[in-house]
Design a protein that fits this description.
The structure holds 2 protein chains of 2 kinds. Chain A is mostly helical. Chain A has one domain. In chain A, α1 packs antiparallel against α4. Chain B is mainly α. Chain B is 77% helix and 1% strand. Chain B is built from 20 helices and 2 strands. The longest helix of chain B is centred in the last third of the chain and has 31 residues. The chains are: A mainly alpha, B mainly alpha.
């Protein structure tokens, strides 16, 4: 769980797109392992399926898709973000404090016994939202969406042990299609605007 | 019902010509509507029906919403055929686009049906998220800079919003953890949750409802999460905007309606969740009123009307009492009216080549049919007397007086008055003004087009003066489901 938080902080300070993608992939693999380790005593077929599908999609398919988008777009790093790297880290620390506070407030019966599980998942959600809001490239916004989704996923595993398999798989599928659709959208935007700077998408107002 | 349109959508992908693809789409939708009607009749007869060990479940509320959905899809599908026929003639609509459009159209019909008839709140969420992703590319069927911009905003805002709703769903599931008999796969079945609602953890349920309201509210275009809506509605092709405004927003609000009785029962029937809904509803009405006054683009004007009317529906549910009934009635009226107005706006836009109302003067002379359509529906949207929307808005007012919510009533009437003056000042020159551009020739409407205008307008007029018994009964039943907590 501490690893999850460290990766969040890393995402906030990274400006190289490929490194960011790698970190997101790592986070996905970590989440899958978390599912298995947190239920190690009562491992069922359902959990193994969910964990392995999760690892495959979040750890390998997403990074692959995103890397292709980077290659198509031909840019390597985030363009002059609204909030610089060091300030982002400071905000990250503030978000971490907020997450710890929420973690101390929420008590759920039957929550699994992993230290920092709730704060880490909230921290991940905050990081995702921050990336969507404060970054300019469409691709980083997409990464932010994945991170946000990861956070919810972590919370789901920690707080609600027993959602049905069908729901979980539907969720993963949705996230997968979501990123896929975003990937295509980025391709089209890049094609039409010669860049994936989302601030150029600002002619529609009022 | 779900599988059939999806199959026809796939078939549309294989069609050789644009026309064939669209026809396949129409067959898919028509077939699904027939199956849906059968299901609704069954529901009306038996009260509720369920299948697949209660994973699929229909009651009066979902059946009513499904009827609205079928009406919207029927009108907008027929209109899509009319609308794109013109574009095919001008070679502005290629086979590839037709295939893409038909497939996505059928798929979104299927996913909305899934939302309505799933008993599992998790699957309901999956359906909503699926509509977001499927409809994203409907916005930019005609690929250009502004439609891509609208699509990206829609995709990012709604995806993140709907993710919030998922967080809410998880919290709702978490609140069941210490309730006996609600474990495993039953934790998210709506019927089970409803039966045990009073035992749920109130703090977690409150947190869940806030997340759900923000999440589904984003998709329903409730202010302040409405920013994507005017862009998406104005840039999408007209049939798509009609479907968006006519039903996609409602589908999302329907999810909120599902949670209302559970939250109310869990928090001890103090009206906590209803107050939140009321506040958001009023805020939407005011924000929409402010933007309507300064709007020049016809489709954006209609989009802000959607924000206003969804606000009215939320307000009605929030007020409770007769308000719930009125809100559901308003759902039907608004959907019919909005489908018509977007169709008319789209067709006029095709004729004029712009949606800027300052350049669209004299619509009556140019196209009698669609001019009547847009003016009639605008009047209805403003709540002018003989139309059904007036009746439902009037009932919302009455609910506000019953609930002694005079502040809410004042703000609602103030907002409606601003909208009335603002929109009418746009509508009158739009209808009777002289157009300086002499190159635009008057267009005659075909019989299908006349029917498309006459049907919803006639229905609205009829419902305004006379409510058929079966409809009233269905609405009362559906309202009772939302109000379950208050009746006990």
């Amino acid at each position: 769980m501490t690893m999850l938080i460290v990766l969040d902080l890393a995402l906030l300070s990274i400006s190289l797109l490929n490194t960011g993608i790698m970190v997101v992939g790592l986070q996905g693999i970590l989440l899958g392992l978390f599912v298995i380790s947190s239920h190690a005593s009562a491992l069922s077929l359902r959990l193994v399926i969910i964990a392995s599908v999760g690892i495959a999609i979040k750890g390998f398919v997403f990074p692959l898709l995103l890397r292709r988008a980077v290659k198509e777009a031909g840019i390597q790093r985030e363009i002059r973000p609204f909030v610089g790297a060091s300030l982002s880290l400071l905000i990250g620390v503030a978000m971490l404090l907020a997450a710890l506070w929420i973690g101390s407030k929420i008590s759920i019966n039957g929550i699994i016994d992993v230290p920092l599980a709730v704060p880490a998942s909230f921290m991940t959600m905050f990081t995702g939202l921050f990336l969507v809001i404060a970054r300019k490239t469409a691709l980083t916004q997409c990464i932010g969406y994945i991170v946000f989704e990861n956070g919810i996923y972590a919370f789901g595993v920690a707080a609600v042990g027993q959602t049905p398999l069908l729901v979980e798989l539907g969720l993963l599928l949705d996230a997968f299609v979501g990123v896929f659709v975003m990937g295509i959208a980025i391709y089209h935007i890049n094609h039409e605007f010669d860049s994936m700077d989302a601030t150029k998408l600002s002619s529609l107002k009022g | 019902m779900i599988v059939f349109p999806a199959l026809m959508g796939c078939a549309a992908l294989l069609m050789r010509s644009a026309k064939a693809a669209l026809t396949s789409m129409a067959i898919g939708v028509a077939g699904a509507i027939m199956l849906g009607t059968f299901a609704i009749v069954q529901t009306a007869r038996h009260g509720t029906i369920s299948a697949l060990s209660t994973w699929l479940y229909l009651d009066a509320l979902s059946a009513f919403n499904m009827a609205v959905m079928m009406a919207v899809f029927f009108l907008s599908t027929v209109f899509a055929l009319v609308y794109f026929k013109d574009e095919i003639r001008n070679n502005a609509f290629t086979i590839k686009q037709a295939r893409q459009f038909s497939a996505l159209w059928c798929a979104s019909y299927a996913s909305m049906t899934l939302v309505l008839c799933s008993n599992n709140l998790g699957i309901m969420w999956v359906g909503i998220e699926a509509t977001t992703l499927l409809t994203a590319f409907l916005i930019c069927i005609h690929e250009n800079r502004s439609s891509l911009e609208a699509m990206w905003k829609y995709l990012i805002i709604c995806s993140v919003g709907v993710a919030f709703a998922f967080m809410g769903t998880l919290l709702a599931a978490a609140s069941t953890q210490h309730v006996a008999g609600l474990s495993g796969h039953q934790a998210l079945l709506w019927t089970r949750l409803r039966d045990h609602a009073a035992l749920l953890d109130p703090v977690l349920m409150k947190a869940a409802f806030i997340f759900l309201l923000v999440g589904y509210g984003t998709k329903a275009g409730i202010a302040p999460m409405h920013n994507w809506l005017p862009d998406a509605h104005s840039q999408a092709p007209a049939p798509v905007s009609a479907m968006f405004s006519g039903f996609m927003l409602n589908a999302s609000l329907y999810c909120v309606m599902r949670y209302v009785p559970i939250v109310e029962a869990a928090t001890g029937n103090k009206g906590w969740g209803l107050t939140l809904l009321t506040a958001l509803g009023i805020f939407s009405i005011i924000v929409a009123a402010a933007f309507i006054v300064f709007q020049h683009d016809l489709k954006r004007l209609l989009a802000y009307h959607s924000v206003e009317h969804l606000g009215i529906i939320a307000l009605g549910i929030g007020l409770g009492g007769i308000g719930t009934f009125a809100a559901l009635f308003h759902t039907l009226n608004h959907s019919l009216c909005k489908t018509l107005s977007f169709c008319a706006a789209g067709r006029l836009g095709q004729i004029y080549g712009t949606h800027d109302m300052r350049k669209m003067n004299g619509a009556f002379k140019i196209s009698g049919v669609w001019g009547t359509g847009i003016f009639g529906s605008l009047l209805a949207l403003l709540g002018v007397a003989p139309f059904a929307l007036f009746m439902s808005e009037f009932q919302v007012c009455k609910a506000a007086i019953d609930a002694r919510a005079y502040v809410a009533l004042g703000l609602f009437l103030g907002g409606a008055a601003v909208v009335f003056v603002g929109a009418l000042s746009h509508a009158i020159p739009l209808m009777w003004g002289e157009n300086e551009n002499k190159t635009i020739k008057p267009v005659k409407g075909t019989i299908i087009e006349m029917g498309l205008v006459a049907m919803p307008l006639g229905a609205l007029l009829l419902l305004g003066v006379w409510m058929p018994g079966f409809l009233g009964g269905a609405l009362t039943k559906a309202a009772a489901i939302i109000r379950m907590a208050q009746l006990k």
